[in-house]
């Protein structure tokens, strides 16, 4: 029988597991699940996930990673898509603290790193306000995975002396109010999360602020996954290239992106597969 639990009832949006007697204090772990490839999960994340009573996870976390949790652990998806959230952030915050106050170990499994545009800070604050112990396990964020697979360093002694991570949209859904003059400086890599829909506006802002239209740019869709796709372009062509993207993607602008390789990902075989070929453990 499957261990997947049904979705929480829509009536009150909170599912509290009751029990008899007084239980020991629970805890919340904000765990970075990495960009998608299960082999990029950290060892600590792997160990912590094995202790879960409840796993509250993002929609992009793969089943391969979710299956590392105990069979008995309850899974709750709090998937967020553009203009379509299964739970509001306040509801997620209340859910995490309510389960922990019931004495449960709650794993909040977040794509990438909890503190890189993952709203982990808000969840940490909610736990502190509720008096719930909260711990953070960092994860490999999409920027690192995207640059690594494309062979394009985020920093480079001759081409990128700084790197900045920014969001591609504001809370209102519009282009964010950023320090465009600073981002337009040469030899500076700019990584844009959630920027596919605002790529045209971002490119315009950067060029208006003085960034050369010929500055190399890279778009990586579904970083580190088997169906990863990369598009190499320049700042002038960023909007047109972004229009080709349908899945979650990252935009990277900067001189060091001249080293990026386009196309679909050609992954090195997994460590496990290479070990079997070499007869490791035989």
Question: In a nutshell, what does this entry contain?
Answer:
The protein is built from nine helices and 13 strands.
Task: Write down the secondary-structure element order.
Answer: EHEHEEEHEHEHEHEHEEHEEH
How many structural domains in the coordinates? 2
CATH class descriptor of the largest domain: Alpha Beta
Strand order of the largest sheet: 8-9-12-10-11-13
CATH superfamily of the largest domain: Tetrapyrrole methylase, C-terminal domain
Taken from the alpha-carbon principal axes, the silhouette is: elongated
What does this structure look like?
The chain is built from nine helices and 13 strands. It is an alpha/beta fold. It has two domains: 27-137, Tetrapyrrole methylase, N-terminal domain (Cobalt-precorrin-4 Transmethylase, domain 1); 142-264, Tetrapyrrole methylase, C-terminal domain (Methyltransferase, Cobalt-precorrin-4 Transmethylase, Domain 2). The chain has a six-stranded mixed sheet. A five-stranded parallel sheet has the order 3-2-6-1-7, sandwiched between helices. The protein has a two-stranded antiparallel sheet with strand order 4-5. Helix 6 links the parallel strand 8 and strand 9. Helix 3 packs across helix 4. The protein is elongated, with a radius of gyration of 21 Å. Mean pLDDT is 87; it is low at 1-14, 266-271 and 276-282. GO terms for molecular function: uroporphyrin-III C-methyltransferase activity. Keywords: Cobalamin biosynthesis, Methyltransferase, Porphyrin biosynthesis, S-adenosyl-L-methionine, Transferase. Its EC number is 2.1.1.107. Pfam families: TP_methylase. It is an enzyme of class 2 (transferase).
